[in-house]
C-alpha cells in the first residue's frame, strides 16, 4: 500500500439542502439539514484510505464534540491520527454548505485549523520520514504548508499540493512541489504572471500539474510537455461536495502508478463521489472504482 501523509484541515460540514440559493437579504426554507465530517485535509485522507492507501494525518481540532467526532471518524477509516493536535483555545473548524441541484456554496470557519504551525509540522517529522508521498491543501496557514514542503524535500518525499482555496504561491514553495492539482481558476491564481492560457501554462510546467476541469475531466502534461487529457465519467450527480477532494486523495493513493493512471482512477473516483450526499459519504472504495471502470471500459 502507498503510505500517504496528509497535512491539512479538519472540519465538520453543516449542510443545508434547498430548492434554490438565497439572494442577498432573502430568507428561504431549506429542505433538509445534516452534519457530515469534512475539511479538505480530512476528506482527502478518507478518500485515499478508502482507495487502499495507508494514511496518516497531521492537523488540529478543538477540544469539543465536533473534534471528538472527527477523530473518531478518521480513526474508523483506519487513518493514523496520532499527529492531530487538540487546541485548548479554538473550536473545531466548520463549513456551512448550501446544496442545490448538485451544486454547492461553502463558507468555512477555520477554527483550530488556523493554529497549525511550523512547530507542529516539525514535531511530526517522523511521519514525513515514513511516508511515500505527502499531500496538502491551503485550508491551513501557508507557513505550515511551507514547513511541510521543506520537510518532504528533506526526506526525499514527493509533495502534492492542491492549491485550494485559491492563493498565490511563494516561489520557493513552487520549487519544492512535485505535483499541483488545481482547477482552472486555482491554476491562474497560483501562477499569476505566467501565461494566461491554461494550456500554455501547463506546457511551462511539464509533468508538474494536473488540472481538473469539471465535466471535461482532467488535463496534464507528460514529462516531455505534451498535453494529455483524461475524460470525465458522466454520472447522475446528487451532491458535488468533496468531488475534488476525492480526486486528490486518489492521485496520492495511486501515485506509484504514474500520473496518467492516477488521473484515470481519480476521475473515476471523483465521478462516483457525487452520486451520494456528503463530502465523505460518497467517497468510493478501491473495489467500487475497479468495478465502475470495468463497466465503463466494457461499454
What does this molecule look like?
It is a single chain. The chain is α/β, with parallel strands linked by helices and 299 residues long. It has helices at residues 40-50, 65-76, 118-123, 125-130, 142-154, 171-176, 184-190, 198-203, 243-253, 259-273, 286-298; strands at 3-7, 11-17, 32-38, 54-62, 80-87, 93-100, 103-109, 133-136, 159-161, 179-180, 210-212, 218-221, 227-230. It has one domain (3-20, 31-294): Ribokinase (UDP-N-acetylmuramoyl-L-alanine:D-glutamate ligase). The protein starts with a strand and ends with a helix. The strands form three sheets. A six-stranded parallel β-sheet has the order 5-4-1-8-9-10, sandwiched between helices. Helix content is 35%, strand content 24%. Helix 6 links the parallel strand 9 (159-161) and strand 10. The mean pLDDT is 93.
Oligomer classification: single chain
- Residue share in helix: 25-40%
Let me know the number of strands.
Answer: 13
> Strand portion, in percent?
15-25%
CATH topology: UDP-N-acetylmuramoyl-L-alanine:D-glutamate ligase
Poorly predicted regions are none
The overall number of domains is 1
Structural class by sheet pairing and helices: alpha/beta
CATH-wise, what's the superfamily?
Ribokinase
* Biggest sheet details: 6 strands, parallel
Cα-atom Rg, whole angstroms? Answer: 18 Å
Gross morphology: globular
- Output the CATH class name: Alpha Beta
CATH architecture: 3-Layer(aba) Sandwich
Amino acid at each position: 500500500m502507498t503510505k500517504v501523509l496528509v497535512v491539512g484541515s479538519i472540519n465538520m460540514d453543516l449542510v443545508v439542502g434547498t430548492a434554490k440559493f438565497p439572494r442577498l437579504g432573502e430568507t428561504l426554507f431549506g429542505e433538509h439539514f445534516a452534519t457530515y465530517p469534512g475539511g479538505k485535509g480530512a476528506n482527502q485522507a478518507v478518500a485515499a484510505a478508502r482507495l487502499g492507501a495507508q494514511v496518516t494525518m497531521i492537523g488540529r481540532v478543538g477540544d469539543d464534540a465536533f473534534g471528538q467526532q472527527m477523530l473518531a471518524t478518521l480513526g474508523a477509516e483506519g487513518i493514523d491520527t496520532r499527529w492531530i493536535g487538540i487546541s485548548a483555545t479554538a473550536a473545531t473548524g466548520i463549513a456551512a454548505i448550501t446544496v442545490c441541484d448538485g451544486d454547492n456554496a461553502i463558507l468555512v470557519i477555520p477554527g483550530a485549523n488556523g493554529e497549525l504551525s511550523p512547530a507542529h509540522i516539525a514535531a511530526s517529522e517522523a511521519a514525513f520520514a515514513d511516508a511515500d508521498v505527502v499531500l496538502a491543501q491551503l485550508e491551513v496557514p501557508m507557513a505550515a504548508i511551507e514547513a511541510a514542503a521543506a520537510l518532504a524535500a528533506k526526506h526525499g518525499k514527493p509533495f502534492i499540493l492542491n492549491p485550494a482555496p485559491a492563493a498565490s504561491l511563494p516561489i520557493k514553495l513552487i520549487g519544492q512541489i512535485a505535483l499541483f492539482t488545481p482547477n482552472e481558476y486555482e491554476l491562474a491564481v497560483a501562477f499569476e504572471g505566467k501565461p494566461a492560457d491554461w494550456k500554455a501554462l501547463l506546457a511551462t510546467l511539464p509533468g508538474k500539474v494536473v488540472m481538473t476541469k469539471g465535466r471535461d475531466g482532467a488535463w496534464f502534461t507528460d514529462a516531455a510537455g505534451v498535453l494529455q487529457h483524461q475524460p470525465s465519467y458522466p454520472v447522475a450527480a446528487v451532491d458535488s461536495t468533496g468531488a475534488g477532494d476525492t480526486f486528490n486523495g486518489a492521485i496520492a493513493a495511486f501515485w506509484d502508478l504514474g500520473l496518467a493512471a492516477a488521473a484515470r482512477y481519480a476521475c473515476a473516483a471523483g465521478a462516483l463521489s457525487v452520486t451520494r450526499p456528503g463530502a465523505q459519504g460518497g467517497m468510493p472504495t478501491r473495489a467500487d472504482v475497479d468495478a465502475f471502470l470495468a463497466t465503463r471500459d466494457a461499454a
